Amino acid sequence: MAPPELDFDSCYRAVSARDARFDGRFYTAVKTTRIYCRPICPARTPSARNVRFYRHAASAEAAGFRPCKRCRPELSPGDPGWDLRGDLIGRALRLIDDGAADERGVAGLARRLHITERHLHRLFVAELGAGPLAVVRTRRLLLAKQLLTETGLPVTEVAFAAGFGSVRQFNATMRETYGFTPSELRATAGRRADESVAGPATLRLRLHRREPYDVEGVFAFLTSRAIPGLETADLNSYARAVPGGTITLTPRRDHIALDVAVADTRQLARVVARCRRLLDLDADPEAISGVLGRTSLGPLVSARPGLRVPGTFDGFELAVRAVVGQQISVAGARTLLGRIVARAAAPGGLFPTPEHLLETDLTGLGLTNRRIDTLKRLATVLVEERVDLDGGQDPAEAVAGLLEVPGIGPWTTGYIALRALRDPDAWPVGDLGLKRSMSALGIPDEHIERWRPWRAYAALHLWSSS
């Protein structure tokens, strides 16, 4: 039987039709082959009596199933339900994708969420049918499977990149869970290890997305806001510095190509997770257009059915962007941010950390004294861990903490919630661009409430229309 949150008949119809709308929402496990697949798997549809449905890949693996080599579950887009949830489970899954459990263990993950490890385990089993450790292991294995299949990274590097503590542990876990070794999988995929790969060699990975996807809108948004010295972007690519290296994102017909060069491959999982959020690859365009398309935004939704809300690679960076961008043009904010990066950039050309910004003299850059004070106070609340902008804190609590910073008001917190906290219903109160667009389209203010729970996407439609 399917877990309580999945309807068996609906899932089976989706599998029979190979309906791409359900890709990433559940997995089909076949009892006769002991393999689990994506709903879009091209293999012959199994008999209903031989299948089970699982909400998460980890629960399928915990039940003894291994991933299909044809449809490759590691390439599934994320479940939009988990991607948008601001509760403990949603935040925990995002932190796991970001590598938090690899760095601190499950106990450290629980501490970051301010709950006990036991309570975290209880929540995961109730919602997913598998504990957090099983979810962490599945994430590691699926990333390793993608690296073995798509790159020439040596097996030793793959093990550490995926979060395993040793090659021996990696080999044993893959054999125990999947029934084959890393080398056997690579041979099956027709890949050869490139033993010359060392240091920041460039690897290419595919980031799959949920269609339709408004490539032009996303890359145009990032291009207009690219910070000199940190990012370069146009409608065909986006590149930036990341800890220990660089990334380049290039749109392809059915996915985004990620070229990443990092000296420490243990950063790969975090880079992949943050790139997915930056490009909003896991959103549910059907659900969004289903609500917004029936409102006064209908014509805009029809024109851009796959519109996305671009996120951020780093929460603090986005918060600084929001503060600097208060009441000035996008071009003006970009100029000031470029000056901040030129003076305060961290080693490797990275955007300054909160600690680095606190130590930097920001006078003479064109910022008012009041704006400088706000930036310093913002950095302080992050250093003191009163606010977490990278997924560990309830969005409402993070917004409340930001509002205590002098110089940060509803517009700023709305913009931060929209892009950094990934709140789909965030609304930058008082935004002049939104007001102008609504006025030009003859949309009254009371319609804003009709756009819930997708007001962030409504804001992007309005910004894109002007």
Which short descriptors sum up this protein?
466 residues, TATA-Binding Protein, Endonuclease III, domain 1, 5-stranded antiparallel beta sheet, 4-stranded mixed beta sheet, 48% helix, DNA-7-methylguanine glycosylase activity, HhH-GPD_domain, DNA repair, DNA-binding transcription factor activity, zinc
CATH architecture of one domain: Orthogonal Bundle
Q: Can you give the helix content as a percent range?
A: 40-55%
**Count of strand segments:** 9
Beta-strand proportion: 5-15%
Q: Count the DSSP helices.
A: 22
Describe, in plain words, how this protein is organized in 3D.
The strands form two sheets. Strands 5-9-8-7-6 form a five-stranded antiparallel beta sheet. Strands 3-1-2-4 form a four-stranded mixed beta sheet. The chain is globular, with a radius of gyration of 22 Å. With 466 residues, the protein is α+β, with helices and mostly antiparallel strands. The chain has 22 helices and nine strands. Among the domains are: 69 residues, DNA Methylphosphotriester Repair Domain (3-Layer(aba) Sandwich); 66 residues, 2-Layer Sandwich (TATA-Binding Protein); 151 residues, Endonuclease III, domain 1, CATH 1.10.340.30. Strand 7 and strand 8 form a beta hairpin. Helix 4 runs antiparallel to helix 5 and helix 7 crosses helix 10. The longest helix has 19 residues.
